[in-house]
Automatic annotation (TrEMBL):
It comes from Wickerhamiella sorbophila. SUPFAM superfamilies: P-loop containing nucleoside triphosphate hydrolases (SSF52540). It holds the Pfam family SUV3_C. Residues 245-414 form the Helicase C-terminal domain. One of its GO terms (cellular component) is mitochondrial degradosome. This is RNA helicase. Its EC number is 3.6.4.13. One of its GO terms (biological process) is mitochondrial RNA 3'-end processing.
Length: 577
């Protein structure tokens, strides 16, 4: 196994050949402006006619008129033209659609495994890691490509780099030809934050055979996209492989703990509720209970799932948030909803029908995509008759059709455009997102995530416009600790310094303490993961990736030990997530 810098990611990496510049404050001089790269004519973008900024951005940045005065809209109304090499192919596209636990991914993964070259793209690095581990267990060489981890394998016979790769959807290499590509969870193409990555991959991947797997509600938008690209489309529809039924037993908050049976998963919708429910089960049932929630590292969630799935393990119950809806194979017999409402960051809102169906569908799941390893009938229950009837209706109802595909201007297009590169970067970025010219079925992304990240380094000195574009996609958590670490990382880049992960994060030294609280471990893990992500994009600034990986694994061991000793959350959160 070899860990190394990769060169196939879809954004700029600094050359390792250039020596890092270490500058002291005494002799430091601000760097001169860098020349923007020439416009990429293969994009075939039309040149939009400039329109008066006052008309285009009437309500945008009234306090900063320089943005509105200088910005011309970027035309991305024909995004399939951005990928001329993919358009030279007449791809065979196979859309596998069906509910959870229908085996829709099985045929796609079978074609991927048998291909001479291929890429599996999933929504989560847990899914990519699962495919990687499965092929490794079958002695099939496969690379792993995620934002913060790159493992390259070599064929023991030929000595060449493995021709199969598994990774997250943002990491799909659009410059390489594949015999087979698989894009999982295609319904996420309309996700307001990450949907652009699915759209880019669907339009741009250079594969002779492209498999798309997801919910049936994605069929309409995929048909529209394939009509634009001119590719051949085949739709394969799947039915659930094991029955999913409403459990007619009447449950209540008071009776729940005593009525739990092995294989039950209790679903809560806040970290606090997950912790409290887990503690109640351990106390009243005197049995161990697995716990899964979103802010746990993927590796820790996978370890908890492994304990729950193992029939020889003393862990018989699982308490989880909606994080179980995607990315984990869980041997769940019954799903029990404690509520059908979730806090969306501003208020409590009802769970949408697709999410109810996705979480409920985890009951009775097969452990793997292989049909021979099926479980029995899946059961779904809730703590009130009203909630149970809502679930019953949701399971019968079709999911609303996806109407849009999210698209955003590629970084190279922004670099080549006439946007104002001298103004506050977060303002410029939001202006670009909000003013980009699109047409149905495409929509612009929700700019909150990238813009909020950009606001963290707006005042960091020394960053180039290209640096800022790359940093806008960084996986920065909303916790104050992680955001503070990110600002320190940006200062390293802006000043041209060289640093390892401990140089920038003194709290990592606390890993030597075996009693460190779980919340602090989670924040340390986020900071290390962010360091690793940056180390692949700014390798001259961030060094000793191996050491950072070792510290990340130590942090995961500390987390697993805390969870095993029922010390899930020793102190309350100070900031909502």
């Amino acid at each position: 196994m070899i860990r190394k810098q990769f060169s196939t990611v879809p954004f700029r990496l600094r050359s390792l050949k250039s020596k890092p510049k270490i500058r002291s404050d005494k002799h430091y001089k601000p760097p001169g402006p860098k020349k923007s790269p020439p416009a990429v004519d293969v994009l075939e973008l039309s040149s939009p006619t400039p329109v008066p900024a006052s008309k285009l951005l009437s309500d945008l940045y009234q306090n900063d008129p320089s943005i509105a005065a200088k910005l011309h809209p970027i035309d991305i109304s024909h995004p399939w033209r951005h990928f001329p090499n993919a358009r030279k192919l007449r791809r065979k596209v196979i859309l596998h659609i069906g509910p959870t636990n229908s085996g829709k991914s099985y045929a796609a993964l079978k074609a991927f495994r048998a291909a001479k070259s291929g890429f599996y793209a999933g929504p989560l690095r847990m899914l990519a890691r699962e495919i990687y581990d499965r092929l490794e267990n079958e002695n099939v060489p496969c690379n792993l490509l995620t934002g913060d981890e790159v493992l390259e394998k070599y064929d023991p016979v030929t000595g060449e780099r493995a021709r199969l790769s598994a990774g997250t959807v943002e990491m799909v290499d659009l410059s390489q030809d594949f015999e087979v590509a698989v894009i999982d969870e295609i319904q996420m193409i309309d996700d307001p934050d990450r949907g652009w990555a699915w759209t880019k991959a669907v339009l741009g991947v250079r594969a002779n055979e492209l498999h798309l797997c997801g919910d049936a509600n994605s069929e309409k938008v995929i048909r529209t996209l394939m009509a634009q690209t001119g590719d051949d489309l085949e739709v394969r529809k799947y039915q659930r492989l094991s029955p999913l039924k409403i459990d007619e037993r009447q449950l209540s908050p008071a009776k729940l703990i005593g009525m739990l049976r092995p294989g039950d998963c209790v679903v809560c919708f806040s970290k606090k509720q997950v912790k409290e429910m887990r503690d109640r089960i351990v106390k009243q049932r005197k049995q161990k209970c697995a716990i899964i929630y979103g802010s746990l590292p993927p590796e820790t969630r996978a370890e908890q799932a492994k304990l729950f799935n193992n029939p020889e393990s003393p862990v018989k119950f699982l308490v989880a948030s909606d994080a179980i809806g995607m990315g984990l194979n869980l041997a769940i017999r019954r799903i029990i909803f404690t509520s059908l409402k979730k806090f969306n960051g501003e208020e409590m809102v009802p769970l949408p029908v697709p999410q109810i169906k996705q979480i409920a569908g985890r009951a009775g799941r097969f452990k793997l995509a292989d049909k021979s390893e099926g479980a029995g009938t899946g059961l779904v229950n809730a703590l009130s008759l009203e909630a149970k009837e809502t679930i019953r209706e949701a399971l019968k109802a079709p999911s609303p059709e996806i109407q849009h595909a999210v698209i955003q201007p590629p970084n190279r297009v922004i670099m080549a455009s006439s946007v104002d590169k001298a103004s506050m970067f977060s303002h410029t970025l939001q202006s670009v997102y909000q003013s980009a010219l699109v047409q149905v079925p495409y929509i612009r992304p929700r700019d909150n995530s990238a813009v909020h990240v950009a606001q963290l380094y707006d005042h960091v000195f020394g960053l180039t416009f290209e640096d800022k574009l790359a940093l806008a996609n960084a996986p920065v958590s909303t916790t104050p600790e992680c955001q503070a670490a990110f600002i320190r990382y940006c200062e390293v880049i802006g000043s041209g310094r060289v640093a390892n992960v401990v140089d920038v994060n003194r709290d990592i030294a606390d890993l030597a303490n075996r009693t460190i609280p779980t919340i602090k471990l989670e924040n340390i893990h986020k900071a290390i993961t962010l360091f690793l992500w940056l180390s692949y994009r700014f390798p001259c600034n961030f060094i000793d990736r191996e050491g950072a990986t070792d510290l990340k694994e130590l942090c995961e061991r500390r987390l697993n030990a805390n969870l095993a000793s029922s010390k899930a959350l020793e102190r309350p959160q100070t900031r909502r997530r």
